[in-house]
Amino acid sequence: SASEAVEDTSGAVGAERYDRTQNAEQAASLKAFRDALELDKATERARTFCTDGTLLRYLRARNWKQAESLKMIQGSIKWQEETKPETVKCPKCLDDPMAHNMRVVGFDKRGRPVIYTCFRQAHDRFNAEANMKHSESVGEAPADESRGRRGSQIN
After folding, report:
1. pTM for this structure?
2. What would the pLDDT profile of 96-133 be if each residue is shown by its tens digit?
3. 129 exposed, middle or buried (CB, 10 Å; 0-12, 13-18, 19+)?
4. In angstroms, rounded to a whole number, what is the distance separating the alpha carbons of residues 50 and 36?
5. Residue burial 21-55, b: 16+ Cβ < 10 Å; e: rest
6. Are strands 102-107 and 113-117 parallel, antiparallel or unpaired?
7. Does 3 have pLDDT greater than 50?
8. Which of 41, 102, 115, 116 is the least buried, fewest Cβ under 10 Å from its Cβ?
9. Is 101 exposed, middle or buried, given 0-12, 13-18 or 19+ CB atoms closer than 10 A?
10. Per-residue pLDDT tens for 84-98?
11. For 91-140, where are the alpha helices, taking DSSP H only?
12. What are the residues whose beta carbons fall under 8 Å from the beta carbon of 18, sequence distance 6 or more?
């Protein structure tokens, strides 16, 4: 039946396994979700963002409800298109590189950024607006860069 588990012979563990469908019903739901997004008509940014792993996370976040997942991911894509988070610069860090203490320290085996932070060491940790801009610049820009990066890795 469609709800029976499909044997995973990929050897994937942890996050890699989580980025895969676990049964035929999930695989069908993922395909329907991808089709509903009409990625062939989408921007390059949206196509790059909408990996199977990302689509699965949105589906799981809304208990596999297609309409809710679609609304949620369309909001994320719209935010990315409008904000262009890779261009966001923290105004405090431009004046004082030690204003915050959050940085990319490397990349894991799958190319995802590893971020370290210690707010106690930050010189200016009480400005909420600057902290949001800093988090955007640290979290989003390296994520774009890491898609395909094969540099230093943290194992």
Report:
1. 0.66
2. 877 777 888 888 887 777 888 887 777 777 778 878 88
3. exposed
4. 12
5. beeebbeebbeebeeebeeeeeeeebeebbeeeeb
6. antiparallel
7. no
8. 41
9. middle
10. 877 777 778 788 877
11. 91-95, 128-139
12. 53, 56
Cβ contacts of 30 within 8 Å, gap of 6 or more: 21, 52, 55, 56, 59
Report the pLDDT value the prediction gives residue 139, as an integer from 0 to 100. Answer: 74
For helices 24-37 and 66-83, give the axis angle rounded to 10 degrees.
Answer: 50
- The residue whose two tokens read 């904000």 is 83
Contact call for residues 101 and 92 (beta carbons, < 8 A): no
C-beta separation of 120 from 126 below 8 A: no
Do 50 and 73 contact (CB within 8 A), yes or no? Answer: yes
CA distance 83 to 69: 21
Rounded distance between C-alpha atoms, residue 117 and residue 127, angstroms: 16
C-beta separation of 115 from 57 below 8 A: no
